[in-house]
Amino acid sequence: MDAPQTALIDDTRAGRALTVRRRFTTPGVHPFDTVDWELRDARIGHGDRIAFEQPDVE
Q1: Cβ density class 25-58: b for 16+ within 10 Å, e for less
Q2: What are the DSSP calls for 16-46, one per residue?
Q3: Against a cut of 0.70, is the pTM above it?
Q4: Which of 1, 6, 49, 53 is least surrounded by CB atoms within 10 angstroms?
């Protein structure tokens, strides 16, 4: 089996990174802080049989 090859330093091109502009968020504000959270009950089951229940979760 051949030895793995690695890229040589001069094979890379500096300054060609992808840039993504901000569209839907505000600088300095975490996106989760902009959501109005509510408590709900989570239940998994069938009919009257409950296999999993987690009350008051966000």
Answers
A1: eeeeeeeeeeeeeeeeeeeeeeeeeeeeeeeeee
A2: --------S--TTS-GGGGS----EEEEEEE
A3: no
A4: 1
Write the pLDDT tens digit of every residue in 7-54: 666 656 666 788 899 999 999 999 999 999 999 999 999 999 999 999
Distance CA 43, CA 49 (A): 10
Residue type, 58: E
**Structure tokens belonging to residue 22:** 């901000």
How does DSSP classify residue 12?
Answer: S
